[in-house]
């Protein structure tokens, strides 16, 4: 997890109880609350990044995007197998 930062959060009592109940039903252990919050934040950040990229690319032809993706995937596949064979 790397270097840790400490957050102080305030949530409603209902949210606290719902989350703690969920974690308890999954056999909650020390650190589960922190892991749950970190995973939720990471998902929310990724979702926002995807929305930003989609908004930035609304004027680009979908076919052009597909071609760019295919070109990059092809390059990555080629380098993956080249690297794999040499190691």
TrEMBL record:
It comes from the Bacteria. This is Ribbon-helix-helix domain-containing protein. It holds the Pfam family RHH_6. Residues 5-74 form the XACb0070 ribbon-helix-helix domain. GO terms for biological process: regulation of DNA-templated transcription.
């Amino acid at each position: 997890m790397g270097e840790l930062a400490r957050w102080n959060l305030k949530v409603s009592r209902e949210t606290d109880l719902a989350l703690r109940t969920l974690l308890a039903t999954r056999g909650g252990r020390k650190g589960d609350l922190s892991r749950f919050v970190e995973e939720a934040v990471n998902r929310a950040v990724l979702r926002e990044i995807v929305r930003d990229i989609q908004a930035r690319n609304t004027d680009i032809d979908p076919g052009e995007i597909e071609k760019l993706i295919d070109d990059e995937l092809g390059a990555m596949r080629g380098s993956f197998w080249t690297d794999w064979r040499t190691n």
